[in-house]
Amino acid sequence: MLSQPINVSFEVGSGRTVTIETGKLARQADGAVTVRQGNCIILATAVANKEPKEGQSFFPLTVDYQEKFASAGRIPGSFFKRESKLNDYEVLTSRLIDRALRPLFPEDYLCDVQILVTLVSSDPEVMPDALACLAASAALAVSDIPIQEPISEVRVARIEGQFVINPLRSELAKADMDFIIGATEKNIMMVEGESKECSEEDLIKAIEIAHEAIKSQVKAQNELRALKGVTTKREYAKPEQNEELRAKVEAFGTDKVYQVAKSALAKHDRSDRFEAIGKELMEWLKTEYKVAEGEELEPSIKKLAKKYYEDLQYYVVRDMILNDRVRLDGRSLDQVRPLAMEVDILPSPHGAALFTRGETQSLTTVTLGTPLDELLVESAATSDYTKFILHYNFPPFSTGEVKMMRGPGRREVGHGNLAMRSLKQMMPGDNFPYTVRVVSDILESNGSSSMATVCAGSLALMDAGIPMPKHVSGVAMGLITKEGKFAVLTDILGDEDHLGDMDFKVTGTREGICGVQMDIKVDGLSMDIMRQALMQANRGRLHILDAMYETMPAAREDVKPHAPRMVKIIIDKEFIGAVIGPGGKVIQEMQRETGTTINIEEKNNQGEVSIFGTKKENVDKAMAWIKGIAAQPTVGDVYEATVKSIQPYGAFVEFLPGKQGLLHISEVSWKRLETLEGVLKEGDVVKVKLTGTDPKSGKFKLSRKVLLPKPEGQGAPRQQEQND
Prior knowledge:
Layout: E1 6-11, E2 17-22, E3 31-37, E4 40-48, E5 61-67, H1 88-101, E6 113-121, H2 129-141, E7 152-159, E8 162-165, H3 169-172, E9 175-183, E10 188-198, H4 200-228, H5 243-261, H6 267-288, H7 299-324, E11 339-343, E12 351-357, E13 360-369, E14 375-378, E15 383-386, E16 388-393, H8 410-424, E17 435-444, H9 449-463, E18 473-482, E19 485-490, H10 494-499, E20 502-508, E21 513-520, H11 527-551, E22 565-572, H12 576-580, H13 585-594, E23 597-603, E24 606-613, H14 616-630, E25 638-647, E26 650-656, E27 659-664, E28 685-693, E29 700-703
Parallel strand pairs: 5-6, 16-17
Antiparallel strand pairs: 1-2, 2-3, 3-4, 4-6, 7-8, 7-9, 9-10, 10-21, 11-12, 12-13, 13-17, 14-15, 18-19, 18-20, 20-21, 22-24, 23-24, 25-26, 25-28, 26-27, 28-29
Main location: cytoplasm
EC number: 2.7.7.8
Keywords: Cytoplasm, Magnesium, Metal-binding, Nucleotidyltransferase, RNA-binding, Transferase
């Protein structure tokens, strides 16, 4: 007989209920749950190997979040019509889960763990990313996989001044703060999101509100675990330890490592010195263990000695920073590395900047495109177009390494997303006609290249003539804590990122925060320490902004001469068909004659026309053409008209694109004419005045003679009936 499912429910506000259920689906996994809110259902499974792989030295956790298109009643748009590799949104959601869960596993747990989170039913109003980590943690909670405690994540958004937990998709569109917070019952673990220049105190308040909501979700997981009857966690094989060897390594290397750490060496010099000490250690251990000349240490001793030496570096450097208040490169705790920046350094891109901070360097370019270049961003529930794109590249030479060049990994996607969300806050609104692509190529890396991307991106966007009102900069911060002592580090190095207890990146303008990405690796971090860290980050951000404004005080007033020209005009809805013409004849003729690309669509009950070209005069010609088609002729105005055909009773002339009228023979000249032969011919351009419209037919009445000098002694002209 099939076992009966077990479930618990809790409220998330505004009458919305979330239900976690186990025991019905995927019962062969170590842990499996579904999480449901409305019609949104997420299936999460957790499976762990019983034994680590031979020689395993790190924790192999794999987290994949995927959305099934069937969950929204859709068929994938790819050629193969099936879900394939994770898209960027799925990768980013996977990272949100991974970053929050990873610190929960014991440091000596080295078995493979795979967590798969799948959207199996979609609700257009429910954002699944806010529920995905809850599902993953619940799957672990109902298993015997040895995590320390459950966690959860919630989205907190400020909408019209009020903080809302897990808002609906339609509500989120009105938010000026949007953050996802991950936490245990007691401690914050992860923060990521964006805002429209919020203050540090606003962010602290959002974190506190989110944490209260998370506590109820952790409580629900513990209830589900108890209902299932899971009371113990599995035993696992712990890595071999040799305390005698550890003591030998510490005795030999502590002072040597400390001397190198406080020497303020460059990254590669410091690495070379540490490597040399490691080789000396291995030779010294041979004498300690009486290894015969020409022989090697036992593999087990050699492996453990290497690990203990890496641990020694970790603890010695941490203690140096905490006790001596000095860092690996000799800086004080709150000092930003030397800055250098240039704009307009590449002749062909539409905007370019080089930003260097210490040993981290980003070369960033900006390309301007048409609405046809917009990026389609698809998830199961939505298909949206975006006209602001940022791509981040991290080639291996940036760290002096040799690696295979493959497509962007999860790290690249995550770092690019943080930079994109930050710069997006200062991009012009929907009326800005261009599609904009920013590409950051990291040329050197030793400490936050994503923050270098934000700074270089802001400079390059202004260099391209994009009307950004303010610069956006970013700084990466670190934290080291031990026995009540702590040190907050501004502009961390790569090594400091590895040995720190908190890694957080803050971006923003002089007025407020635009983006945050924070990972916390230590229990019991107080809000007072976090507040101090945020205020120190503010000072670092402002220091970098001052240098950016010295380099590029404001955006260029216009795009560069070689950049494409683009304008946008709004026309009445009724003229959309006239601009396009039958079968697209008119718009195709305009594009052919002017060498431009013209895009027209209906928005807000109006026609939005974008004109894109490489030469300003061509864009102006196309704009005048469209304005002519969409213009309303005004009685009394004078127009340049082209003669289209000659008739016995007058000439038909086009005085605006697509608008013709009869210039009667009696209105051509003050002199009475029997024929227009020798006076006008097809193709002639003449000035005419719109004198009125026929009240019955609506046809235009035009006159040329009223613009000509009136012969002396001639009375007022007798009006003649104008016939077709």
